[in-house]
Amino acid sequence: MSDDHHCNYMKNIAVFASGSGSNYEAIASACADGRLDARVVLLVCDKPGAFVLGRAARFGTPVFVFDPHTYSSKSEFETVIADRLDSECVDIVCLAGYMRIIGDVLLARYGGRIINIHPSLLPAFKGAHAVEQAVEYGVKVYGITIHWVDESLDGGRIIAQRSFDYDGDDPAEVHRIGQVIEHRLYVETLAKLLSGES
Ligand code: GAR
């Protein structure tokens, strides 16, 4: 338990991100203005210099930034991360553009408490280039999925999905439309999970 605080009544969220962090910001804003009865107690980022770190600084979220290449294995850095999650009394981990597969150590210690947002209607288009692949395929109904994280790639049980129609060929536009939906869906889904509804 960490010394100052907060292992009691309010729910503690950790967000993992690698890039822009717009989903981190959506969650942090919802905590800040009371739409979520929770706080973001830690941002974990595997990319020193990522844009999300500036967002975290503005919200005053503590960060754990690391360069995976400076560790000898995934187990080694995941042990450090899991220890940080423990000391912040994290209730739920939200992957938000964390472009790294969660390994054995985190699954053993936080399995059942890790969720991910993915820019497709899973189980279609798993992996890192879901939108580009869907556009290439000529998909007409796109969507966003939030799911539990297990040892499979983007394969854990689905918690929430939202679809939208798009009949064009511009992946950037699909990303733009999808991200607006992501931000709402992540906050709504967290609200339900934290209140025990989902
Ligand atoms: C989001 O669109 C998320 O769905 C995607 O990364 C983006 C991160 O955006 N995740 C994946 O593709 C996972 N396979 P953000 O950094 O602005 O939140």
CATH architecture: 3-Layer(aba) Sandwich
**Number of beta-strand segments:** 7
The CATH superfamily is identified as Formyl transferase, N-terminal domain
- Which structural class do the helices and strands define? alpha/beta
- Order of helical and strand elements: EHEHEHEHEHEEH
* Form type: globular
CATH fold-type name: Rossmann fold
* Poorly predicted parts: none
Sheet with the most strands?
7 strands, mixed
The chain-level mean pLDDT equals: 95
Radius of gyration from the alpha-carbon trace, in angstroms: 16 Å
Topology record:
Layout: E1 11-17, H1 22-32, E2 38-45, H2 52-59, E3 63-65, H3 74-87, E4 92-95, H4 104-110, E5 114-118, H5 130-137, E6 141-148, E7 158-165, H6 171-194
Parallel strand pairs: 1-2, 1-4, 2-3, 4-5
Antiparallel strand pairs: 5-6, 6-7
Helix pairs in contact: 1-2, 1-6, 3-4
Structure report:
- Helix 1 (22-32) runs parallel beside helix 2, helix 1 runs parallel beside helix 6 and helix 3 runs parallel beside helix 4.
- The chain starts with 10 loop residues before the first strand and ends with a helix.
- The protein has helices at 22-32, 52-59, 74-87, 104-110, 130-137, 171-194; strands at 11-17, 38-45, 63-65, 92-95, 114-118, 141-148, 158-165.
- It is an alpha/beta fold.
- The relative contact order is 0.16.
- The mean pLDDT is 95.
- It has a single domain, classed as Formyl transferase, N-terminal domain (Rossmann fold), CATH 3.40.50.
- It binds glycinamide ribonucleotide (GAR).
- The site of glycinamide ribonucleotide has 15 residues, from helix 1, strand 5 and helix 6.
